[in-house]
TrEMBL record:
It catalyses: (R)-4'-phosphopantothenate + L-cysteine + ATP = N-[(R)-4-phosphopantothenoyl]-L-cysteine + AMP + diphosphate + H(+); (R)-4'-phosphopantothenate + L-cysteine + CTP = N-[(R)-4-phosphopantothenoyl]-L-cysteine + CMP + diphosphate + H(+). Catalyzes the second step in the biosynthesis of coenzyme A from vitamin B5, where cysteine is conjugated to 4'-phosphopantothenate to form 4-phosphopantothenoylcysteine. Has a preference for ATP over CTP as a cosubstrate. Belongs to the PPC synthetase family. It comes from Maylandia zebra. GO terms for molecular function: phosphopantothenate--cysteine ligase activity. Residues 14-66, 143-242 form the DNA/pantothenate metabolism flavoprotein C-terminal domain. GO terms for biological process: coenzyme A biosynthetic process. Its EC number is 6.3.2.51. It is an enzyme of class 6 (ligase). It holds the Pfam family DFP. This is Phosphopantothenate--cysteine ligase.
Length: 295
């Protein structure tokens, strides 16, 4: 991560670390069961594409098997339905496999872009599964990115568990249902934003996310996070409307980003708006990107 960051910073590029997907919290040391959450990783994966389009190099710290930039568009398709086997009748002729572009719409365009990105080494994927892997890798990433100072951005879209069972309190073997109903006591996960902003990467531009299911407490929680951690922005969203509506809160401003029906028809994604606004705000803090106040 440090080599990737220095390589791109020396080439004059900004580097963003995107966290994406949910975390897994094991209930047993030889894990059979774990607690998880809803996050698909779509926010992180699509934002990675828009950041690359805006000239950034991206470290993509994502949950194993969550959505991934570029391939995310084809995840619901059975690969074997998209391929056709041709020829192969004669002995020694292994035939050819061709892509059915009707089953994989836009595949040529997406593949071309993916190859360009790979060739330019603009995307560094790093995987985590458990909460402890996430915490360890985020700290390592922050320390690697601190070397490029204000050229680094953190875009923390992952849905990280707030609760865990410490290794010392975890049963080694599978919890037995014959012991009756299960009662769990979980410890609080330390809030990582505090050391990230204050110690690990104090010069970086940090955007956190806040998700609630109760819209009436969302903005208050977002503002409280900014007051507590003093980072640059919080993207606030509600579970059910998160694909079409977010509020970006900074210390001085608050702006709604909304997709209209027309946007949805044209397949515009809200992440494009979030990334464009974030980039303007980062490149020029006085920019009007997030200046629209809500009364
Ligand atoms: O993946 P999708 O299905 O597309 O959904 C996207 C999303 C809803 C998950 C995303 O938009 C989002 O809101 N992510 C943050 C969820 C949340 O409420 O996080 P939080 O309140 O637990 O944490 C606040 C911030 O600190 C988050 O940016 C989180 O990534 C970060 N955090 C939290 C705890 C912790 N120990 N470490 C952290 O880095």
């Amino acid at each position: 991560m440090a080599a990737f960051a220095s390589f791109h910073a020396e080439a004059g590029r900004k580097v963003v670390l995107i966290t994406s997907g949910g975390t897994k919290v094991p209930l047993e040391s030889r894990t059979v069961r774990f607690l998880d959450n809803f996050s698909s990783g779509r926010r992180g994966a699509s934002s990675a594409e828009y950041f690359i389009d805006s000239g950034y190099a991206v470290i993509f710290l994502h949950r194993h098997r969550s959505l991934y930039p570029y391939t995310r568009m084809f995840l619901t398709i059975n690969m074997l339905d998209a391929l056709e086997f041709q020829g192969g009748g004669a002995p020694g002729n292994t035939g050819e496999v061709v892509v059915n572009q009707q089953v994989l719409p836009n595949i040529a365009k997406v593949l071309k872009r993916y190859e360009e990105v790979k060739k330019s080494r603009l995307l560094l994927p790093i995987e985590f599964s458990t909460l402890s892997e996430y915490l360890h890798l985020l700290k390592a990433a922050a320390q690697a990115l601190s070397k490029i100072g204000s050229k680094a951005m953190f875009y923390l879209a992952a849905a990280v568990s707030d609760f865990y069972i410490p290794a010392s309190e975890m049963p080694e073997h599978k919890i037995q249902s014959s012991n009756g109903p299960l009662q769990l006591s979980m410890k609080m996960v330390p809030k990582i934003l505090s050391p990230l902003v204050k110690e690990w990467a104090p010069q970086a531009f940090v955007i956190s996310f806040k998700l609630e299911t109760d819209a009436s407490i969302l903005l208050d929680k977002a503002r409280r996070a900014l007051d507590t951690y003093r980072h640059q922005a919080v993207v606030a969203n509600v579970l059910d409307s998160r694909r079409g509506y977010v509020v970006v809160v900074t210390l001085e401003t608050q702006a709604e980003l909304i997709l209209t029906e027309e946007d949805v028809k044209n397949e515009v994604e809200i992440e494009e708006r979030i990334v464009i606004g974030t980039d303007s705000c980062y490149s020029d803090p006085k920019s009007s990107a997030y200046q629209r106040h809500i009364p």
